[in-house]
Amino acid sequence: MVDAARRRAMSRPLRIGLIGCGGISRAHVRAMQILGRETVQVVATCDVEEALAQERARESGAEIVLTDWREVLKREDIDAVDICLPHDLHAEAAIAAAQAGKHILVEKPIATTLEDGWAMVRAAREAGVVLMTAFVERFEAENQRVKQLLDEGWLGAPILAQVDHLQNVVVPPGHWVRSRQRLGGGAIASAGCHRLDLLRWFIGEVEWVSAETYYEPDRMEGEVAGVVNLQFTCGALATMSINWMSPHRAFYRKLWLEGTEGCVHNWNGLHVFSRKKPEWWRAS
């Protein structure tokens, strides 16, 4: 079924139903606009707040505006859904989408519980559809270059890595992001999952994990900052620092990775040192 869908997608644009039209959906629409309508088309937008669905429809060129995601799944002119709902609503919508034969892109984190996440995976496998979490960092040119350096042996086997994610997140009173249950945690669950996915892509699977967290109850129920320590099955170690109450407004991400043959960091560009070329050089 998946192969047949891919063959059809090669002959016509992939037709999308956008489910959830809050803030993050703007980035999804922009990405689809970059791909172009000859590649992907938003057929319908859906949100319980019709005004938001109307706004995304204007931005994306969608002609259908709905307020119930179940109506999106009934449409035969939709191949896949892009789920941008609050995190605690991912599982129900994704499982129903799989059962309706729709391919699924779902915002991170995939779900708020392990049980829901695996239920989504099982539903997609049983239906033979693609289920993908929107982990975008693997597709960024700088990170793909790091992966290339690893694969080509410039860095050797990973030994130690450090990743940071710093920003100032201001959540309005009453917003669902303030709820630990709805968000699935706090800053680590919502933002740290991007960094963790990147580390797993670079290094491999995680063997054990420990963490310390910092809370500001007036800002949100979940953690606003935390430090995560990881050991991978290959023996490599990593530290991940997340802060959603950084005093500056800038969005700051840092990577440092040390291997047996070299190291790389992304401070003001991607810089590499390797035994193959024993000097610091810019890779991007």
Note the main sheet: 8 strands, mixed
Our measurement of the CA-to-CA distance between the termini, rounded to an integer number of angstroms, reads 39 Å
Helix content: 25-40%
- Poorly predicted ranges: none
State the CATH class of the largest domain.
Alpha Beta
As laid out across the biggest beta sheet, the strand order is 8-9-10-7-11-12-13-14
CATH homologous superfamily title of the largest domain: Dihydrodipicolinate Reductase, domain 2
Radius of gyration: 20 Å
Number of helices: 9
> In the CATH hierarchy, what is the architecture of the largest domain at level 2?
2-Layer Sandwich
Shape: globular
CATH topology of the largest domain: Dihydrodipicolinate Reductase, domain 2
Number of strands: 14
Give the DSSP E fraction (strand runs of 2 or more residues): 25-35%
Average per-residue pLDDT, rounded, comes to 95
Order of helices and strands: HEHEHEHEHEHEHEHHEEEEEEE
Folded structure, characterized:
The protein has 284 residues and is α/β, with parallel strands linked by helices. It folds into 2 domains: 2-134, Rossmann fold (3-Layer(aba) Sandwich); 137-282, Dihydrodipicolinate Reductase, domain 2 (2-Layer Sandwich). It is built from 9 helices and 14 strands. Strands 8-9-10-7-11-12-13-14 form an 8-stranded mixed sheet, covered by helices on one side. Strands 3-2-1-4-5-6 form a 6-stranded parallel sheet, sandwiched between helices. Helix 5 runs parallel beside helix 6. The relative contact order is 0.12.
